[in-house]
Amino acid sequence: MSIVLNAARGGTSAAPFRFSPVIAANAAENARLSLSENLRPLQRISVRMRYGRNETIFGEGDAADHSYKVISGTVRLCKYTGDGRRQIADFVGDGDFFGFLDLADHSFTAEAVTDVILLSYPRSQIDRLGETMPAVRKHVLRLLSENIAAMQRHLVLLGRQTAREKVASFLLRMAERAGLGEGERLDMPIGRQDVADHLGLTVETVCRVLGEFRQKRLVMVPNLQQIVLSNVAALRAVCEG
Amino acid sequence: MSIVLNAARGGTSAAPFRFSPVIAANAAENARLSLSENLRPLQRISVRMRYGRNETIFGEGDAADHSYKVISGTVRLCKYTGDGRRQIADFVGDGDFFGFLDLADHSFTAEAVTDVILLSYPRSQIDRLGETMPAVRKHVLRLLSENIAAMQRHLVLLGRQTAREKVASFLLRMAERAGLGEGERLDMPIGRQDVADHLGLTVETVCRVLGEFRQKRLVMVPNLQQIVLSNVAALRAVCEG
DNA sequence: CGACTGATTGATACGTCTCAAGGATAGTGG
DNA sequence: CCACTATCCTTGAGACGTATCAATCAGTCG
Fold first, then answer.
1. Could you tell me which CATH number the domain at A161-240 has?
2. Between B29 and B59, residue with greater pLDDT
């Protein structure tokens, strides 16, 4: 009776992408329609929400009666094991939608990585709009489909890639999302521990790999919140091995 | 303009489940509606297909103009890296649907694990049916949502579980899917290499863990195609650590 | 029966984790 | 503005888990 939603980019996706795809299907992901355009009818039923750093937006198992769009900030979507291990399924940021799954309860937890402003849509209203507006239905479907394709790529990363490949893939994907080219500063509001929990690594390993990349001049790290990819070709070479 | 689909069970899901859920959300998965009932209108537009063992049903990147339902046999949905490594996202079997993603090209490869009989639905026709039949739309949405929830659980497995936990989780999930209880024979048409590529392990590690479980009397392996879970409680204990 | 594919077991190497210490950064209160 | 503290990041040494490589065994098909 409710929905959880998951990441899919909808924002100002007309941004230029100077990267060729890291992984095959990324090109398609970037070429995706401007989802936000077709989900504009949702605007009228939205409520603005604000969450502070590390605040929980909803927990796994909570009744899922709202879906969300990120206005500003970054959100992590994750699951916890009984003994506290954490796996971050995805990060969603500016313009991304999440929590659109058609399930009674949320299948994952959503937490604010930074201070965050969201639009919240009552699930019942989305369903209602969907009844009469095929474009809305179509784009929820597209949202979920893109999300599944992205998760499949992440399964490959978690199951079959080395630490170096994981970190390189991650950096390239972040830059691509931001529409940044070689040499530009990439804002990284995401901490090392969060990166590790997304890539199936430990913080220490993430640090070591980043250090190695820095030494080899693949990246520069001007400060903790920013990274510059100085050699995209080499990073892409690392990805496949 | 087409669709890829992914796994979600729709078959004779009224079968009794004697297992309590391995992972939290599995209960919900089992309690899912009888999807096949609501997708019955698809029956009229279906074409019966037959594939032999290891035959490719469609490849990643192929135009996705059909969706499928498994009548008999087992199919693996997987992705390959440039250098040949393979990650199996899921296995689908009797009564399961796959290939319903709303994307132009398939985001993964589908291959027959055993000889397989499928129903094939033209995507254009599914879309047409969806226009007029809300129940069809609703259930495609549910299909994708269940699929995403299942993939999220698998992300945790790949990113945060040990080899023992992975194999134990896999065995419990297989038994649950089949609706089997402790001591009953579980048919496992899936080879060890396929299991390994699903769990992010090597064949050797899968064998070693199975051997260990056999020694500890958690399972019996009467032959290569069958496994008996003799101590479900212990296996479940292994899952969390 | 013989050849092939897949499964198993063993010995060893390697990658990543774990544990521990030190350094940087940001937030807080004087 | 600075000291203080908490948090996060970084680096190192060693342990551990899984991969790798190699050989044997079992089951299947011709």
1. 1.10.10.10
2. B59
